[in-house]
Amino acid sequence: MNRAREEICCDGAYRLGLTGKGVGVAILDTGVYLHRDLGDRVSGFFDVLRRRSAAYDDNGHGTHIAGIIGGSGAAAGGYYQGVAPGCSLICLKVLDQKGNGFASDVLSGLGWICRHGREYGVRIINISVGSFNRRGMSEDSALVRGVDAAWDAGFVVVVAAGNNGPASRTITTPGISRKVITVGCSDDDREVEVAGSRLLHYSGRGPTGACICKPDIVAPGSRIVSCAPSRDGYRVKSGTSMSTPLVSGAIALLLERYPQMTNRDVKLRLRERAVDLGLPRNQQGWGLLNVERLVE
Fold this sequence. Notes:
CATH class: Alpha Beta
Helix content: 25-40%
Structural class: alpha/beta
Number of domains: 1
CATH topology: Rossmann fold
Order of helices and strands: HHEEHEHEHEEEEEEEHHHH
């Protein structure tokens, strides 16, 4: 994660003393293991699948996401620190041990956040989950309506573009929503392993079926080191699932500095402060996330 932090220029934010303190980030994923890097900052856990009360992650994907957003790097002397190491994490298990799930479970998680998120200080919802079922690629699909409802409730919803590129119209649902912030990968020119397959130029590309340009922004996602589901362990993962929490962490820093910002303000700020990479709009969105420019 150290490489990714360098590429998105976090140092300026840290010089301002920003850590994401006071900002809650909800993660809809495979759950969370209470890694040492997460400390006592997992302030909420909700298991949609089994209704277990104690936090767990039988896959590891959700723990990796949590570390990218808010890991302290304590188990690695600070080397693998997340973007917002002071934020609080509210983790919802909506995917099973294979990383698979149903739209109904994701919607249950979103509903829980809409009902209880304010109690936990949730400002941001991270969804590194997507479906490429052709029957669900409409803006009227249940997942899109679900994330749109969370956005309309005032949450900043950050969603992965998916790993089905490089053809056009390969953004996954619910990333096709015109309201949410959809994140692609800026370094998918590096061949990596994703879910057991070797992929290159994998980041989902727009436009959507409704001719909306997507993704909105890109961030590194190839070979990102973050927390494994063991107390002090780390592992490498790749994909737009990893790009998405980098943006969520950056937004946590932004909202710590400017807590009065609305989700619309945040989206506009991302657009204004992104770095143009000179790539097609439906590949790079507005450009590369730059944290220093974002929070200055």
